[in-house]
Recover the amino acids of this structure.
């Protein structure tokens, strides 16, 4: 069983930055697409970014591309989401996920097989 352990959430002022981490336990991410999603209160879970593990090719939701960066550390079997210039509307529970197949463009929830528990990101004014 793939287990995803998340960290890095918290409270940050608008304009600030956070880096979320998602560490894999049980097996390597090799052969997977790693994705980040978020869910604001009362909203559907939506795609943020994804990265292929082998080549490190990334793909972003258009509204996130200029402010968020997804990356991975193969030695640590960890995927990161660097979030800069945070806005109030970025407040949400953020999830990492692993999908079978090392593919660049995976934006659907159904494309992912394993999910982290989520970490709260709250942006304040």
């Amino acid at each position: 069983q793939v287990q995803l352990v998340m960290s890095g959430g918290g409270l940050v002022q608008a304009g600030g930055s956070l880096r979320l981490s998602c560490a894999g336990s049980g097996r390597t991410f090799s052969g997977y697409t790693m994705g980040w999603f978020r869910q604001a209160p009362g909203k559907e879970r939506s795609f943020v970014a994804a990265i292929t593990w082998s080549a490190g090719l990334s793909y972003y939701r258009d509204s996130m591309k200029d402010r968020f960066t997804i990356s991975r550390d193969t030695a640590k079997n960890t995927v990161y989401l660097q979030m800069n210039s945070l806005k109030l509307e970025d407040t949400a529970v953020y999830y990492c996920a692993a999908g079978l197949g090392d593919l660049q463009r995976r934006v659907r929830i159904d494309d992912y097989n394993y999910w982290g528990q989520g970490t709260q990101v709250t942006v304040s004014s």
The chain has no helices and eleven strands. The longest strand covers residues 92-100. The mean pLDDT is 94. Residues 81 and 121 are 12 Å apart (CA to CA).
